[in-house]
């Protein structure tokens, strides 16, 4: 039998040592004396370990996606940068040029990220090509989700799961034969369908797994609520499950997102809107009478109303707050059509971002009249208002921007918005912004 890869338990300690070696190696460029080298190297080592435990930097598993690894590295890099500059601020007499410090951090994290990704890719290829570093599994209970899991194991050898068998449950005696199979075949992980097991059978499997050091996992297919991203907490010694955990609610994440919003919105206001606004204003005024800017009430964080700003792209009309623009809408001006096609009309919303009414990325806010209607008729629509609305969002770059033509459009938009608020990361924001710019350059079907 091939080795199951228990040596993988050594990967994390080895990763710590390699990363610390990289940090200390590049730190030699500062050329401190012996005493100061010991102090700085000790500070780097302790800070890195404590920070890694806080940020879960080494919580990378065989099923972890590349974007998660990049996000963890970015988050670790931002916080470690603050710690390093804090060190030089405290020992100011040993201060170094900020450019040298940034060079040190840049080289270190480039190498660390390259090593981390290379190891992740190597292990995937190793599992797929040579069959090593695998986990033997079984699935107890034949249900639709059990079949899906079995197909996942069979179709994705790079994850290193070898499913020995899927058991149908007939009786408690059947459970005893499964226990025997697990021991005889050296099964590493047991997956159970909660829909197909009684409480007595579940307790029997739990007792067996605990006594034989087997990893036990459950497929939450008997209650829809279990398939959600639940947050597990303790009130004293009482376990409590809450429906969702919103990453932006964590203070450090809220600070990072707000800092990113201010930085980007200020850059757009100073370097783009400062010269573009007069040009757009002239074009708007030449074609039609009316204000250069258009403001409209929208619902934002906690359902609070605010004025959302845009460049005016329509002729002044009494239906602006009631009806969305549609294809070949006669209200749209010629310059307005161009601005909508390129999303230039949305640029004044960076003032909303700077003020704090909006974020650069988030669920797109709707007209108040539409919001009230959607809130009453679209399931989970109100969840979007747990966070600030955005100039662009995951739904928009996934094909659901512009006019809501069918019920499915708004339902899918809400699904993407909820996924975004439950899985937010700064890297995801950057990815959405990049995709938005690319879409604006290429043009979109519903950009009218």
From TrEMBL:
Start and end residues of each Bacterial sugar transferase domain: 257-441
Ranges annotated as spanning the membrane: 14-32, 38-57, 69-92, 104-123, 262-282
A GO cellular component annotation in the UniProt record: membrane
UniProt entry keywords in alphabetical sequence: Membrane, Transferase, Transmembrane, Transmembrane helix
GO molecular function, one term: phosphotransferase activity, for other substituted phosphate groups
Membrane topology: Multi-pass membrane protein
Pfam families documented for this protein: Bac_transf, CoA_binding_3
Cellular location(s): Membrane
Gene3D superfamilies: NAD(P)-binding Rossmann-like Domain
PANTHER family, A to Z: COLANIC BIOSYNTHESIS UDP-GLUCOSE LIPID CARRIER TRANSFERASE (PTHR30576), UNDECAPRENYL-PHOSPHATE N-ACETYLGALACTOSAMINYL 1-PHOSPHATE TRANSFERASE-RELATED (PTHR30576:SF0)
Family: Belongs to the bacterial sugar transferase family.
Entry protein name: Putative colanic acid biosysnthesis UDP-glucose lipid carrier transferase
Organism: Psychroflexus sediminis
């Amino acid at each position: 039998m091939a080795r199951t890869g228990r040596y993988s338990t050594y990967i994390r300690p080895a990763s710590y040592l390699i990363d610390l070696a990289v940090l200390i190696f590049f730190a030699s460029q500062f050329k401190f004396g012996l005493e100061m080298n010991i102090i700085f190297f000790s500070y780097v080592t302790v800070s890195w370990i404590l920070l890694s435990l806080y940020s879960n930097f080494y919580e990378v598993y065989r099923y972890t996606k590349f974007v998660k690894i990049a996000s963890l590295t970015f988050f670790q890099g931002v916080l470690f940068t603050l710690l390093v500059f804090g060190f030089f601020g405290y020992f100011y007499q040993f201060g170094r040029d900020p450019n040298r410090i940034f060079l040190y951090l840049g080289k270190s994290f480039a190498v660390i990220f390259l090593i981390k990704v290379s190891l992740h890719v190597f292990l995937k290829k190793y599992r797929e090509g040579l069959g090593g570093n695998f986990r033997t599994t079984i699935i107890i209970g034949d249900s639709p989700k059990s079949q899906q899991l079995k197909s996942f194991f069979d179709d994705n050898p790079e994850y290193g799961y070898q499913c020995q068998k899927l058991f149908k449950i007939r009786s408690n005696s059947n459970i005893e034969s499964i226990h025997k199979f697990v021991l005889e075949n050296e099964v590493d992980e047991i997956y159970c369908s909660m829909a197909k097991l009684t409480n007595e059978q579940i307790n029997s499997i739990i007792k067996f797994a605990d006594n034989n050091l087997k990893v036990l996992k459950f497929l939450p297919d008997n209650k829809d609520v279990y398939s959600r991203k639940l947050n597990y907490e303790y009130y004293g010694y009482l376990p409590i499950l809450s429906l969702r955990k919103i990453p932006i609610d964590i203070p450090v994440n809220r600070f990072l997102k707000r800092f990113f919003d201010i930085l980007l919105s200020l850059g757009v206001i100073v370097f783009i809107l400062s010269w573009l606004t007069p040009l757009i204003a002239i074009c708007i005024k030449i074609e039609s009478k009316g204000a250069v800017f258009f403001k409209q009430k929208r619902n934002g964080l906690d359902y609070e109303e605010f004025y959302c700003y845009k460049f005016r792209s329509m002729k002044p009309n009494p239906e602006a707050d009631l009806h969305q623009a549609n294809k070949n809408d006669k209200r749209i001006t010629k310059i307005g059509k161009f601005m909508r096609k390129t999303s230039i009309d949305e640029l004044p919303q960076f003032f909303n971002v700077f003020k704090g009414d909006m974020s650069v990325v988030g669920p797109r806010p709707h007209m108040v009249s539409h919001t009230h209607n959607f809130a009453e008729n679209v399931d989970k629509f109100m969840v979007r208002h747990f966070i600030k609305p955005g100039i662009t969002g995951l739904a928009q770059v996934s094909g659901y921007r512009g006019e809501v033509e069918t019920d499915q459009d708004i339902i899918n938009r809400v699904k993407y918005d909820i996924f975004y608020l439950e899985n937010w990361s700064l890297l995801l924001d950057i990815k959405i912004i990049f995709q938005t710019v690319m879409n604006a350059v290429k043009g979109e079907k519903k950009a009218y």
